[in-house]
Amino acid sequence: MTECEVTVSSQEDAEKLEGCDAIYIQNATGTLTFTNLNKAGGMAFENNPNLTAISFPLLSDLGGIKITDVPALKNVSIPSLSARPDGLPIGLSISNAPILEFINFKFSLCDNIELFDISESIQVLSDDIIDMPSILTDNCGSFVQLFDKVRTIMFLEITTSHPQDHCIFKLPKLSSIRGINITHVGGRFSLGPSNESWPGYELEGTIQVNDSIRIQSTSTIGNPFTQFDFGPIGTIANFLLLDSDANATFNFAGLTNVGLNLSVSNHRETYCLFDRLVNVEYLSIYNSTNSFFSFEQLERVRSLTILDNIKTTVPLFPRLERAVDIHLRGNIDTSGGPNIFPSLTLVSGSVVIEPWNEDFNCSKLVSQWRDNVIHTLKCNGTDNGTETTQTPSRGSTRLPSSTLAGIGVGSGIFGLGIVVALIWLCLRLRRRLRALETAHKRGDMEPTDENSRADVSGLHEINPGGMTEGLREKPDDHLPNWRIRNELPDNQIVELPVRETELPTSP
Predict the structure, then answer these.
(1) How far apart (Å, rounded) are the C-alpha atoms in residues 65 and 79?
(2) What pTM did the predictor assign?
């Protein structure tokens, strides 16, 4: 292939080309037929307001084609193009072609397909595309045959500036896709094999979404009903976000697992069916009106939050077994009695039930709390036992929080009393020690009464020659050093008479 860059503006220029690395078509009019061109690295059609048709009858090797700003273009034909000899994918980009009606090509391996501002009635004849990294478009038109054999897509994005109500988008052979982002699309959207008797599917749960799906503002009240047939999707690795839709149905008949978050918000007149969903980390539904939700098979969820859905009944969860936290606020279905979680085995966190209907009975939830199935319960319905409860001590080693709080307060007061008593004893002991030390320094050990004196009434002299020689006085150093202020005169000492007593003699 010749390395060149040429600009084509007429049929004469087109007939001269056999192969070129880069071809630019500008200011062309009418029909251009590239009769001899068989190879091209890339082609770009820009600023061709009067170009009506393009044909490449022999072109079999093409890197990519970009067609933009062609308001009069109706037909594009590349019948011989199927695959590049080097095995690389082919890129296709078409924009601002409002009356384009027909595209004929046979790409078996496509790079990116970008279709913007094109006719809603466009027909694309290419049933050989197998794999492509991404599809970006603002019009899903009637791309029925374009993707009939596509098996894998990296990313699918359909975004329009206003709701469209005639979307027909089918990927009957799709087995794997990384992510889907759909905004302002109405009509019918289906993945995988389906038939007109929706929602019948041949292969439910066979498609794996490796990242996330986000669908937003697809329709409005008064527009034709919008339906999304996602039955073949089996798993979603990360997120499923459905936001701000009306008059629509989302059928995920084959979905069994959502890796992280399933969020539904701001819906009106909408049906969301998740009849086979078993596991999800976070499930939230809020601010929806007159809508219906189904979770017949859900068994495990980390956080379940359903809040403020007007004219909408909180769905039942007949198979839910385990959760960490549950919070329900709205109209709760009481047709089956008070047992809204009949299969529940453990809620390790809290269960908060705020029913809008006055006839909701909390008795079964209270029973599950007493059986240690629910750790913490708050239920505002009738027969709630107590407004706020925690796991009871009956059948368990745990004590109620009020008891634990009383024990803690009592222990604190008791400990504080011990500390205060010890401090008081220490201070009292120190005061007494100081008093004793002061008294010792002053030598204040004698009696304080001025009239007191030593008692000497028991001291008597015994006449020698009696039974004993008499009392011997102790040395002065054995007597205490009493200071006797008032001494008695000598004539006050009285000498007692000695009685003679004969001892009996032995016979």
Answers:
(1) 14
(2) 0.64
